[in-house]
Amino acid sequence: MSTAAACHRPAAFVLGAALVLALTATTASATPHHAPRVQRVSTAADGTQADGPSDDSAISADRRHVTFVSTAPNLGCAEFHPCLLVKDLPGGGLTRIDLGPGYLYSSPMPSADGSRVGYSAGTRFLVPYLYDRATGRSERLWPQNPPGFNEMGRVQSISPDGRHVAYTIGNRHGSQAFRLVYVRDTVTGTDVLVSPPGEGAKPAASVSGDGERVAYQLEGSEQDPADIFVKDLVTGERVQADTGLGAAELVRITANGRRVLFNAENGVYVHDLRTGVSRRVAEGRAYAATADGRYALVAGADGLRVHDLRTGRLGAVLPADAQAGPDSLAGGRPAVVFGSAESDLVPGDTNGVTDVFVQRIP
């Protein structure tokens, strides 16, 4: 992505709100039928509000687990010792992912059932990790003998079952931070090189559910706009998904590996890999999408809200200061997780800091 949610990863974005802009739907279908339910999740296990800010959140596809980063002391964190936490929404319990003193955490993304969490962490340079809640252990994701000089990396995508993780590695020099894209198969322990450094920087990548297809974004330049490519790891075939649409920004590949969602020409597009056809499905810019590609979190003229790309129905506008990332949306009955400093979203919000909330769409 670009700007605040750029490169598909850790920074959040803040968007204003204005008037309603319908998708291709009618005014009636664009208006939410019921008010959304909002829950504050950056709280202690007993519901006590955090005494420090929390943000950088993500939600599992089953809508039962939220990951976020916090510096709240009563959550076991500190200003210079942030925590990476997993909140179980049904019971309220918190699990802390801790690599030790001095670590910073970023871009957490849970598997569909929340049993695994991909994230980036480090004391100086961030590198990719995968946490297994069953064992309580984190594994550093790094290939054996990667080409060139590499000192940093980032988790980019995790498959719904948590088996496959797409990640980038590189170094701090110029645009080389995302010079290599790999996919780790956690069952075989192998790392497959998807895109070599010769293709340029790859600030975003997304892996299909079976790990066989990977969509990735080339950074681009003024002379050569950013493009989206899909690599089939079985056949080796590489195709472009955004041909003729100018500069493009990757949102994700669907779990079934059949479609790619991306932003281009001030709209949201879906590319069908079977037919080779791209079609525009929404105005604005998408920052997240569900694994099946049905729902997207889109910033439009009226602010940030969930779009049903099949029916055109729109969810309620998120707060004007909402901070959301690429894994902030879960499907089914959609739920979106976001950070906000607004104090009137739930009763009893008096801590005066950014909290993490979940909004469920009726």
Unreliable residue runs: 1-33
**Remind me, CATH topology?**
Neuraminidase
User: What letter string, H or E per element, gives the SSE order?
Assistant: HEEEEEEEEEEEEEEEEEEEEEEEEEEE
In CATH, the architecture is 6 Propeller
The CATH H-level homologous superfamily = TolB, C-terminal domain
State the secondary-structure class: mainly beta
Give the termini separation.
28 Å
Judging from the principal axes of the Cα atoms, what is the shape? globular
Strand order of the largest sheet: 1-27-26-25
- Summed over residues and divided by their number, the pLDDT gives a mean of 90
**Briefly, what CATH class?**
Mainly Beta
What fraction of residues sit in β-strands? Answer: 35-45%
- Number of helices, counting only DSSP H or I runs of 4 residues or more: 1
Task: Please give the domain count.
Answer: 1
- What's the number of extended β-strand segments? 27
Characterize the largest beta sheet: strand count, sense, and whether it forms a barrel.
Answer: 4 strands, antiparallel
